[in-house]
Amino acid sequence: MPGNTFGTAFRVTTFGESHGKAVGVIIDGATPKVELREKDIQHELDRRKPGQSSVTTPRKETDTVHIMSGVFEGRTTGTPILLILYNEDMRPEAYDDIKKLFRPGHADFTYLAKYGIRDHRGSGRASGRETAARVAAGAVARKMLAARGVKITAYTLRAAGVGCNSIDFKEIEKNPMRAPDAVAAAEMVKRIIALAETGNSAGGIVECVIEGVKPGIGDPVFEKLDAEIARAVMSIGAVKGIEIGSGFAAADMHGDEHNDWRDGSGFLSNNAGGIIGGISTGQKIVFRAAVKPTSSISLPQKTTDTDGNEAEIVTEGRHDPCICPRIVPVVEAMAAIVLEDQYKRQSALHG
Amino acid sequence: MPGNTFGTAFRVTTFGESHGKAVGVIIDGATPKVELREKDIQHELDRRKPGQSSVTTPRKETDTVHIMSGVFEGRTTGTPILLILYNEDMRPEAYDDIKKLFRPGHADFTYLAKYGIRDHRGSGRASGRETAARVAAGAVARKMLAARGVKITAYTLRAAGVGCNSIDFKEIEKNPMRAPDAVAAAEMVKRIIALAETGNSAGGIVECVIEGVKPGIGDPVFEKLDAEIARAVMSIGAVKGIEIGSGFAAADMHGDEHNDWRDGSGFLSNNAGGIIGGISTGQKIVFRAAVKPTSSISLPQKTTDTDGNEAEIVTEGRHDPCICPRIVPVVEAMAAIVLEDQYKRQSALHG
Amino acid sequence: MPGNTFGTAFRVTTFGESHGKAVGVIIDGATPKVELREKDIQHELDRRKPGQSSVTTPRKETDTVHIMSGVFEGRTTGTPILLILYNEDMRPEAYDDIKKLFRPGHADFTYLAKYGIRDHRGSGRASGRETAARVAAGAVARKMLAARGVKITAYTLRAAGVGCNSIDFKEIEKNPMRAPDAVAAAEMVKRIIALAETGNSAGGIVECVIEGVKPGIGDPVFEKLDAEIARAVMSIGAVKGIEIGSGFAAADMHGDEHNDWRDGSGFLSNNAGGIIGGISTGQKIVFRAAVKPTSSISLPQKTTDTDGNEAEIVTEGRHDPCICPRIVPVVEAMAAIVLEDQYKRQSALHG
Amino acid sequence: MPGNTFGTAFRVTTFGESHGKAVGVIIDGATPKVELREKDIQHELDRRKPGQSSVTTPRKETDTVHIMSGVFEGRTTGTPILLILYNEDMRPEAYDDIKKLFRPGHADFTYLAKYGIRDHRGSGRASGRETAARVAAGAVARKMLAARGVKITAYTLRAAGVGCNSIDFKEIEKNPMRAPDAVAAAEMVKRIIALAETGNSAGGIVECVIEGVKPGIGDPVFEKLDAEIARAVMSIGAVKGIEIGSGFAAADMHGDEHNDWRDGSGFLSNNAGGIIGGISTGQKIVFRAAVKPTSSISLPQKTTDTDGNEAEIVTEGRHDPCICPRIVPVVEAMAAIVLEDQYKRQSALHG
Question: Residue D144 phi/psi, 5° resolution?
Fold first, then answer.
């Protein structure tokens, strides 16, 4: 019932605070006998870690993963896999000044409302740092999905008001925005650096394409594949919206435009985004997430403290002026966890 | 693990096919000693039922609810409540012609891919009729939420390319679109009837406003209040996207615009949509769902049959040219189920 | 979180009160395309129903099952199966006298303590009648297990102080005790009728043997196969104890006696009861349940009423002087539900 | 769906292998703002750790617990608590000889059957070492239960054929058997040492008494308080049976003997063991677990290897000749986890 677990057949539970001792995840239900090395996971963590470029936070965390259980002689045993990342660059004292202040856009106020106590150091549990655990778990899911022929690719489709005009997967890892359009990426970076210099931040849109999912994956009614993806992606802190296939554009379409016809070669269009009735069609699954501008900015803002007094806050510290490039691997990880879970559930249904 | 259950502390499990004997729901976890009469539920079902107006399907279902268990002398006992709606206007033979055809936009193909068998009569389990069970369960959740001071109001914000220019809750139930703007509603109806006459259909956007939720409701990390709402709403068949607060508009905003400041009177804006870090702020919760145009249209369409042969299909039968007005109570119901569940979970955490 | 659901991959949720409108069950996760007719289920229900013999209650319930969903043209579709049994021989007024009295051995006091309200009619939800829903669900599980080669046989091993001296499965359904020893059965019946004539009741032990389970079924750590069986069986109202294999006798054994050795032909003994480390060994699974004497007796007993006043109670009505023969199919049903669930979970793990 | 998690509102997930890097647990759902220090947990771990006396294994593990998350300035925050115990006295090489042998009574054979791979070092995940994680989690549950006035006391009631003749809680921690009867304890120790000298082992019975549980705790139907206790206790490796209250003795009792009458002072007896209809009565909860003799013995035994060849095995190494004294804190821990979970669930129901 508490919300730190995702998935049923492939189940991950994350733990840890931003400036506590560690963050990490238990993965329960991993297929046995799958080769798994720390470097498989580290590769994905390195894509999410801070300090990669001028558009990300300079916090120094190597995010080194340790496999603590569930792997024997380089292969999964089917028992719980604990992955732990010890925190290194902790500066809890950097947050002393804002101990009693509610930072705008942050979960300070709501955590206190819910729990009656909060670890104020770097957002504690509400920190984006928690997503490192998701990426680690997603890397394990991806090992299994790779064997199924499933490939997941996310990228920044739009940021700081700049959209991509072309989609070339080979470009994604070549620019700091993880955008599939080199020209657009350069313009995004330029605008974001300008914003950062004024102490401001930018939002964007991350798109994800999943290839190779066979038809029949996903479990109606409430755990439809798109519903699970929506939950998974919306559970990432900065995400304010999610759409599948035609998405919000469907609102202004007519039935004859929107329906995906079929002929002998299969579906002729993909407004459905690869999912109908909550079940995969075998086409590419395509969805987009709206990412809000980073809440931590250096401009002075109005707020209140925990006693209800009005105050002005200027958030110092190390922030991402646009979180999109670092959300890309998180979106991929969540998609991977959803899919590995649903594949296993399909096996259970017929097993 | 199978996906017909939603919620943990307040848990609903739906059953039934469109042209089978019945549809309905078991509600487990209802607060004991709450007054509950069939008419409380019937009122909501009547808002969803077919045949209400010129913009909805003429299928005749009274959708009469029967409380079969869990209620004693007009009050809940805390044991499972079975609500059943016997199907009446079943015409399974009307679907014989399309028994072997995959209807575009429908889950025919994917259900067969998943299960290896399908009840082809009126979409079987994938029918919108399943949402009657959700509305019935939502009505029970609303009884409890009413006692908490929570009020949920959804409406058609946009349909057939026509958007509302004003929001007046009192207008909603006065027009067949369930739109909060009488003028816009009239234009929507006009366009939808025109589309229906050509055998076509329209999409739209449904917005939902939840008032009275106290701060602190929602459970990070994976079961954030907005993530649960996203899942709940995306699990409604026709929904292609969901956004909270600023939603997709956040992508083009800057941090100083998006952050909701506070002063002594509370929050000064609501880009968050009433939820930060997955937990309610105490403000109005606001979200929007993108609704695709109804897949059942009378225009000839290309498809294939279950043997892979190409075919043309013209869907006869009784359809909604725009499903928005009937999705409104479903969205409210799903929001109610999420909230009642989360309220109870908050009690468990501190209990 | 509420407790009316059992299982994860094969999941059953029961509903209904003894003297309400109906009892029944939703089964979610049934394998698709399995032949299922009402008569398959009815056969098992007839073994549990009241009025079968002199040692069971004369309440008249045909326990006729209706498949309301999830089955199409005689085969499961993989969607939820609602099984409903409408109550017939309801006599709620028979319970008016004891409306405010706590019957000894019954859950009257505890239900009121938990819920603050109770349906006093024939124990309401706490009635043994709830087990009809379990038997119905178990019958569905058994269809699938039969295809796996799994056979489940329970019987009365001991009752009213009389134990069986031989185990002959062919005898079980030939005597009203469902005992595998005809001679012992006759003596049990004699003693129970004598007890019933004095208004008293008897307890006993039900043993269950499961054949054909392949090695490797069961999920450590907390959901070991024996732990799940223990939960399933202990959740039957009258059961006060459960033991697997050597059971309580193990307490006085030494390691060299208890360990089951192996040679080329497999295990040489079965003190483990067919389960080691929570996982099936491939041997017969053997467990026993202790059944308390029926709480409803006609002898005068001391109790209190809901206002705390002392009172004497004489329970009139229709009761089973020994519940063992009717618990036999319930034990089999619960074992079937556990096993079908665990088989599916094993498929998920490797799937 | 994988079985390494227990509980719903108060949820624990354990991880780790006997000779891997660490064992531990994530606790999700802990009440916020509860004081929690490592020493609170260490105290319970010290009761379970090896090397305490002549009747327990000499393996040297300090079982030092580290709180890695979920606690801030000495108080729980309501977020997941990771407790980790790094393994110290690992001797994986000690198991090389038996790498390919199935040890009688151990889960070697069944783990391989289930997973197709096994960590053979000291039983891997199937080791009793996993219970250290349970004890750690139970210690956290006990902090919360203490505030509710709930007290849990387990002890060795019988071992090596010697039963206690008196129950004095003050004696329990004074003797190595954790028996409540000093005289019986001395005799148990004598017999167990004699058995150990011949390379053999002994079983026993552990009883648990829970005081202070208010009436109304426990959730029918499938998650009855006694059913959950049965599952929790049966999930401990060496347990072969569990009985509540009268237990197996109920089989030979009559209704008038077994029913617990009430007068103005409350219940007059406690055959129910403090639970009726799955719900606490407010009386003491009493249950007993049958513990098998330790499987690891030094006597030569017949077995087979992973290739099916017959073999003789003599298990060297460090073993407990009777596990009862070390199971005592594990039983208490599992009871604590069940109760804290059920208290929270009761809050959810009415919350």
Answer: -75, -35
Cis link prior to C71 (omega < 30° from 0)?
no
Is residue D66 exposed (0-12), middle (13-18) or buried (19+ Cβ within 10 Å)?
middle
DSSP B35: B
> Which chain D residue lies closest to B220 (C-alpha atoms)?
D79
Give the span between the Cα atoms of A238 and A71, in whole angstroms: 33
CA distance B332 to B136: 11
DSSP string, A256-267: HHHS--EETTEE
pLDDT digits (tens, 9 = 90+) for C149-170: 999 999 999 999 999 999 999 9
The residues, any chain, with a CB within 8 Å of residue D96's CB and separated by 6 or more, are none
Q: Nearest 5 degrees, angle CA B228-CA C222-CA D220?
A: 65
Judge: B14–C80 Cβ closer than 8 Å, yes or no. Answer: yes
How far apart are alpha carbons B47 and B329 in whole angstroms? 7
Closest by Cα among A88, A89, A99 to A121: A99
H or E element in which residue A185 lies: helix A182-197
Q: Whose CA is closest to B191, among B176, B178, B201?
A: B201
CA distances from C114 to A87, D13, D158, D343 (A): 45, 28, 35, 11
Q: How far apart are CA B207 and CA B152, in angstroms?
A: 11
The token duo for B252 is: 């083009």
Rounded CA gap, A202 and B120, in Å? 48
Token code pair at residue A138: 């997603």
Fill in the amino acid letter for D79.
Answer: T
Whether B222 shows a pLDDT value over 90: the answer reads yes
Measured between CB atoms, which of B9, B80, B119 is closest to C13?
B80
Residue whose C-alpha is closest to residue C348's, from A28, A222, A343, A220: A343
pLDDT digits (tens, 9 = 90+) for C104-126: 999 999 999 999 999 988 889 99
- The residue to which tokens 């609903």 are assigned: B12
Helix, strand, or coil (residue B42): helix
The pTM of this model reads 0.97
ipTM of the complex: 0.97
Q: D 76-95 residues with CB below 8 A of C?
A: none
Q: How big is chain B by its Cα radius of gyration, in Å? A: 21
Check residue B7 and give its pLDDT: 97
- What is the residue-wise DSSP string for A234-260? HTSTTEEEEEETTGGGGGG-BHHHHS-
C-beta atoms of A33 and D116 within 8 A: yes
Cβ of D127 under 8 Å from any chain A Cβ?
no
Q: Which residues of D touch B347 (CB under 8 A)?
A: 347-348, 350-351
Is the confidence at residue A91, as pLDDT, over 80? Answer: no
Amino acid letter at D285?
I
The answer to whether B60 faces chain C, any CB pair under 8 Å, is no
pLDDT at A318 over 70: no
Cis peptide before C135 (omega within 30 of 0): no
Q: Of B11, B69, B114, which is closest to C15 when you measure between CB atoms?
A: B69
Q: Is the peptide bond before B65 cis (omega within 30 degrees of 0)?
A: no
Quickly list DSSP for C227-263.
HHHHHHHHTSTTEEEEEETTGGGGGG-BHHHHS--EE
Q: Are B230 and B282 in contact (CB under 8 A)?
A: no
Where are the extended beta strands (E) located within chain B?
5-6, 11-16, 22-28, 66-67, 71-72, 75-76, 81-86, 151-159, 162-163, 204-211, 239-244, 262-263, 266-267, 275-276, 279-280, 285-291, 301-304, 310-313
D342 lies within 8 A of chain B by CB? no
The pair of structure tokens assigned to A302 is: 């109005």
In angstroms, what CA-CA distances link C27 with B4, B13, B81, C13?
Answer: 10, 10, 16, 7
Residue with tokens 């359904």: C173
CATH architecture under which domain B5-350 falls: 4-Layer Sandwich (3.60)
